[in-house]
Request: fold
Amino acid sequence: MTSADLDREYVWHPFTQMRDWNAATHAPLVIVEGHGAVLKAEDGQEYLDGNSSIWTNLHGHRRPEIDQAIRDQLDRIAHSSFLGLTHDVAPRLARELVEASGLSGHKVFFSDDGSTAMEAALKMVFQARLQRGETKRTTFVSLANGYHGDTVGAMSAGHSPLFHAAYKPLLFETHEVMSPACYRCPHNRAEPVRGTDARTSRQCNWECVDELKAALDKLGETASAFVLEPLVQGAAGMTMHPPGYLEKAAGACRERGVWLVLDEVMTGFGRTGSMFAFQKEKIVPDLVALAKGLTGGYLPVAVTLASWEIFDAFLGEFSDLKTFFHGHSYTGNALGCAAGLASLQIFKSENTLQKNSVLQKALANLVAKFWKHPHVGDVRQEGLICAIEIVRDFKTREPFPFADRIGHRICEAARKHGLLTRPVGDVLVLMPPYCVTEDQLAQMTKALWLGLEEILPSTKGS
Reply:
């Protein structure tokens, strides 16, 4: 049997309608190699990795420094328990993460992926409040359309009807506030303007911040923490927040004694232009969840950075039972930590953030063309995250019916031109690895444009 046959016979894929997958007339694409920003399929065809292998691969595939770090660690030990033991790799990675974040005094708790990093953060908040005697502070506040992972706690903090509706009976109650997503914000009085990001042309009075403040005031001493993805909400449709929102939200939380929990699973490690998104607005979060790019896209390692204030609530006598009774079998995995250290070293040796500033300008110039298409409603970019929202009507922002799968079909068409990327609904996403060249960026945007023209031909041609 071929790899594709074996897949259809035995595998269940995430976020995939398997009836369509198994009934498809064409065989699944089987990736067998990767190098830099290029992926190679089993049939020999090469593709550009337009979404960094689902937002994880930072420096490119088969990065020699990370490959060697993993080989060197394999010559020593692959994994040992982190319960009651430590090793010589995880503590070094923890120190590097604290220094890179600028969060002096924060402690680093290791786990496996973004969901588990967020699950740990939520449990830390809940238990710390109880152990500090703040027993009324049990309510989490989070943004509309939020997505923080697929564990029960992470789903509870999210508000995504598409992903979470079926599990609603399993979830604990959280308080939802509006997302500061300017393009579809009901308080944005500005008409759509071609060539202008809705965050730039918006006309509002920061009603999103007022709603957050009002919610926190109404909850009073029951409000425990505010949970959000800073600057960019990924699975919500790559919605991007206006500059200043995070700073204002953080201030509102600080004034009311509410802890700030940031999900930087996607936005962390240089994606938005700074090492971490929260650094762009110079705020100090209480907890930060990191995953995806932490190991350069090689191995599943995640961390939760927790403030000393929260960590201190867990200190006591053994008999006090203040221990954080939460963990994972592969916590602090040595191979993953070695990869993470190598990835962070690349940021230093290659001045990655400075190099990315050049790439993001090149990407902005290339995607400006999409504004000319009648079915492009918004083009927004934060660092090396670019989102192109497809609509039925530009003036009204009316979307296409969900069942039409416009975004999916455009990306399928772009694949024929050598690009692999995955949309979020009808939002086309480009999130290239940092090793990408400007020529490769041009190829990516051209392929996406050709895919768009195939599914939705413009009246002016391509």
Q: What stands out?
A: Residues 114-131 form the longest helix (18 residues). The CA atoms of residues 315 and 322 lie 6 Å apart.
